[in-house]
Design a protein that fits this description.
Layout (H helix, E strand, L loop, with lengths): L8 E2 L2 E2 L17 H23 L6 H6 L6 H18 L11 H11 L2 H14 L4 E8 L2 E8 L14 E7 L6 H4 L3 H11 L2 H18 L1
Antiparallel strand pairs: 1-2, 3-4, 3-5
Length: about 220
């Protein structure tokens, strides 16, 4: 599980992480107004509601997600929203590389045959997700897997059909793209790949691998 170092847990609960770039930094691919609304309304809302649901009981987001069945749906939905959006926003960059790098590149080629085939499978997971949800590239016990989850679920949760550590998460809720792309989710997904930072994805992958090696 990736430790999200900028997801700050304070004595009274979680604090909304700031973005590592300006709201207009991802234009023209993701517009300023979408980024502002997504971060200051939706992400902030999940943080606020999670703090309310936890009633001041400070626990790390990782601890909550790994024991999610102990909690009600309010915690499930908002803990997922907090984690998922923190991962998502940190994967985006105005200086993104256009293809995978490092060991993740090698393992994507081995698993999917090529970057292009991976990209097609990941895009299909996003367009094929019925209603709101997420598309993922996760490291599972069986290797790299592309899959999707509904609502704010993620592969760290026991509810997920495919369980593992998320490397890349793409938000396919309408609030992530509707102001610019309207109903054209596929167009948003194409633009997502133009601002996806593969250097960060590789860093995520290495953290997961190193964590797994320490556990064994």
């Amino acid at each position: 599980m990736i430790k999200l170092s900028n997801l700050i847990l304070e004595e009274k609960g979680f604090k909304l992480p700031s973005l590592p770039y300006a709201y207009d930094a991802l234009e023209p691919h993701i517009d300023k107004e979408t980024m502002r609304e997504h971060h200051t309304k939706h992400h902030k809302g999940y943080v606020t509601k999670l703090n309310d649901a936890m009633k001041g009981k400070a626990k790390s987001i990782e601890e909550i997600l790994s024991n999610i069945k102990k909690y009600d749906d309010k915690v499930r939905n908002n803990a997922g929203g907090v984690y998922n959006h923190t991962l998502y926003f940190n994967l985006l960059s105005s200086e993104a590389t256009t293809s995978p790098v490092g060991q993740l590149k090698e393992d994507i080629d081995k698993t999917f045959g090529s970057y292009q085939k991976f990209k097609e499978e990941f895009s299909n997971a996003g367009t094929g997700q019925f209603g709101s949800g997420w598309a993922w590239l996760s490291l599972t016990k069986d290797g790299l897997k592309v899959h999707s989850t509904p609502n704010q679920d993620n592969p760290l949760m026991s509810y997920s059909d495919i369980k593992g550590d998320p490397i890349i998460g793409m938000d396919v809720w309408e609030h992530a793209y509707y102001l610019k792309h309207k109903s054209k989710r596929a167009s948003y997904i194409k633009d997502f790949f133009k601002v996806l930072c593969w250097k960060t994805a590789e860093e995520n992958y290495q953290k997961i691998i190193n964590k797994d090696n320490e556990d064994n």
